[in-house]
Fold:
Amino acid sequence: MPTSSLVMFEEEFKQITVVIDRLLKEANAKVVFLVDKDGQLIAASGETGDIDTTSLASLTAGNIAATGGLAKLIGEKEFSILFHEGEKDNLHISIVAQRVILVVIFDQRSSLGLVRLRVKKAGDELNVIVQKLLQRVEKKPAVQENLLAEISDSDIDKLFH
Structure:
């Protein structure tokens, strides 16, 4: 599977937002993030004001990469679910469609069992959306190429002057 950054279209972004907003509510979570394996934040829902979302996205991708190395050492392809328990907050991290990372931050208002149950349902929905997105990009490779082709030298000069 390609590891380049995802090209996000408005339709799929809206669908992703609906799914993670619902997951936030149904899992009684504090925050839900969807992150590209490259460490780019795709979407977020919940109490994100006090969180450095850029760092969280980057560190989550690094965490997945590191545990992927551990998995390979013991003969596994990857660990699809990770759980970190803290004094106040917990992280549930899962890989969706082998391409994106779903992060749920929750506290004592929820439980690991509830989060796992709701993540399973949301993960299935997100898998369909991401697969559709990947197919859409594959059908239209010119879309990716044209994103940069539309930028002229004068646009770049205006940006930096």
Q: What stands out?
A: The beta strands are 31-36, 41-46, 81-85, 90-96, 100-106.
